[in-house]
Each structure stands twice: as structure tokens, then as C-alpha cells.
Amino acid sequence: MSTETKVNTYDDAEKGTQEITPPPLTYLPTVYPEISEKKPIDTLMSLEDKKEVAAPPVKKSPPKPKKKVSKWIRWVLWFNTYRKFFTLTFTLNMVALALAASGHFPYAVKYNGAFVVGNFNFAILMRNEIFGRILYWFVNTFFAKWTPLWWRLGCTSVLQHLGGIHSGCALSGVIWLLFKVVRMFLTLEVEHDAVLILGVCTNVAVIISALSAIPWVRNTHHKYECHFFATRVKFSHKSIFSVFERHHRFVGWTGLFCTWAFVILGDIYDPTTKTWNLDGVHVIRQQDFWFTIGMTVFIALPWICVREVPVDIELPSPKVAIIRFERGMQQGLLGRISRSSIMEYHAFGIISEGKHAKYHYMIAGVQGDFTRRLVNDPPKTLWTRQVKFAGVSNTSTLYHRGIRICTGTGIGAALSTCLQSPNWFLIWIGSDQEKTFGPTISGLIHRHVGPERLILWDIVFITSNYIGNTEIMQGCKEAGIPVFGTLWDF
Asked: Where are the membrane-spanning stretches (predicted)?
């Protein structure tokens, strides 16, 4: 599959507001020396004369061949810290599983349930927004400016790619769960039917949730309409939401409930005596019970912070909505918003002049049903999580100076860094920005990002489309410039 089929190369906001149609090609009138200057200039030659004296066609210089990026650079960018974390966590788990299956790791055989929920527990923790904010705060507080550059770059890379641990532990947990249930079916004569049924249900729910998070599935099916049925049935806006969200979140929650039932029934049933031990003390002494409590807390915490808040929406052009919220924010944060308290949350970068500012903003470019409705039917309130999550730009405080590169609506994730730090240089690539994004965003830039910003940097952060992100990262790596680009894993 080509890159163009995987992602949108450019969004409408990057193209600008003007629709430019090239004029039809016409011949210019030719003026002869023998014609007096007083004669009308629209005196034209015959078609035959034009052919005789037509100027030879100008030869266009061939375009310069595009510089090829070395295989080593492509490998370094592909095998990033995300994939390193995934490889490490998954490999360690598979080694432990192989030892358990071969009889060389009896502890894992006896407590395989703890390995299941322990992996899920860690996977969810890596995606917990409050835990992420704590990690970013710790690194930004204790390692800013004074530590060696290689250490700060390593911290940024680790924080940006924690999703690799999430993916590695989640997939490992699925395989450990399969291992546990298969072993139970091998001893079918001593297992209770209720435990077996819950084991199968938990497997199905967890596997569906995991499969929906595969990058190809997310990129292909992260839509807000069902194209197959759209030609036959008209859905209300409330019934249309992301395929990824429906399977990864809601089936995942179903898997959590099944996990609770599976863990409790598995802990109180004794296959040796085929009896139920209803002593609660026995249950709370099991590792998998406490891992499941931790998993539940990590899932619930961000939802406790959900609130419905008033918003003002500015529509500078048909392609962009500027959403204004009350209170200021620190730089490098992103927020999730929705028209509903539970379904269809979308993440956008936050623009703010600082913690003590009166407002913060989000930029939503029209790309799908949700953002299109923001333009066509602007709401007065939106649901949001009050605790925002940190992006890679949040680590900009670690560095003395840097460059922030973005295209189109990527300015939403990039601008706060340059507004709140006088040593960060902004490169914003787009067309007709002031007309597309309006006076609010342009005013923030003109007030805070002056032309005196020098291009002296420690690091480059990029927020762009897939192709732009890839090419700029390859160029920076080739030139030996530290660079971090966009991830599409949240």
C-alpha cells in the first residue's frame, strides 16, 4: 500500500483558503519595428507569420535529483526508542513464557494470572495521563539545562516513546492470557465450567481490543462514518463514532469486567478439591487481585477529571475552528474534547501564553465529521478532561534553544513552546495562514514571536503530516541534528 493511501498527505488548512485556477494560455501580440508607435498595439500577425517567427521553446533545466537518504538513517528512524521498548518488553515476556511452557519456570506456571494482569497493569499505566504528567514534571524539574545534552535527548526520547512499553506489555499480556486458558483446558476435568467460560470471554474481549490498536487498523479504520452502510442508511451524528474507539475502549472495558470476574472466580475455586473457597482473605492475598485493582484505578483516574466546560468558537475560514477555553496552560500540552461525556474524544494541541493567561486555545482543522460539525454547528460547551496530557514539546524546557517546525494545523501543538520560551524559533509551513487561521492566532504570533529569533538550536521538534515529518526527520538526522517528530500512536 502506498503512503498516500495510508494517511492524508496534506490537510485543507495546509492548502490555505484560496482556490487558484491557472489562466488559459494565450499568445502575446507581437510588435514589429516598422509599425509606428502611434498605431494600435493590438495589431496582430497572421497565424502563418506567427509560425515563421515564433521564438524557439525555452528548454527547462532538468530538476535536481532528490538526495537519497542512507539506509542507516532510515533504519535509525524506523528502529526508534518506541520499537526498542517494544522489543525489550516483548522479548523478556516471551523468554519467560517459553521457560514456563517448557517446565523451567514453575513460578510463572503457578502464578500465570499475575503475569497476565501484571502486563496489562503496566500497559495501562504507560497510557495514564496523570502518570505521564508526573514523569514529565520530574524530568523537566530535575534535569533541565544543566545535564549533558545526550542525557536530555535520551529523556525526551524515553518520554515520547513510552507507548512502546504499552504495546509490548499489552501484547504480552494477551499471549500470557492465552497460555493460562489453554492450560486450564488441558486440565478440563478439574476446572469449573464458569471459570472456563469467563476465561474464553476475557480472551475474546482482550484480543479484539488489542487487534483494534494495530497501526494498520487504526490508520485504515479511524473514521467517523461507516462508508459501506452510509449509502443505504442515514445515521444520526450520535451513532457515528470511531471504529478504533468502539473496539479498543468499549470492548476493552468489557474485558476489564470479565477480568475481574475471571480473577475472583479463579482465586476462590480450588481445582484440587473442586470446591469454592469463599474466604475473602485468600482472595486479597493473591497477586492478580491487586494487579487488577491497579489496572482499574489507572483506567478510571482520567475519567474522574472529565467536565463539561463553556467554549467560544471562532471560524476564521471554512477549514478551521479556533476553540477558546478559560484559564491558561503551560506549554507542550494536549487536550481531549468531545460533544459527549463518554464517546468520540479527539486530541488537539493547546495554545496558551502561559499558566496565568486568561484563555487557552485549540485549533481544529476540518478533516472528519467531528471537526466539520465544529464549523457547521459550533457548540456552546464541550466535554474535556481537565488534566491534560503532555506531548514531546513539554520537554522543551530541558534545552537552551531549539527549532519548532510545523505545517498547517500543527501550529496548535507547536505554538505554545515558542510563545512561552524566547529561545525557541518557529518555522510554520502553510499557505495563506492569516486568512486561514484568523487574527487570534496571528496576533499571538506577532506579539510573542519576533523576527529577532536567531536560528541557534539544541534540538528540532516537528509536527507535520506523515510525508513532511518523514522527510524533515531524515534530513535532520543526515545533518546530525537531534530531532523528534510526530507519532501516530495515541
From this structure: 85-105, 163-182, 194-214, 250-269, 289-306
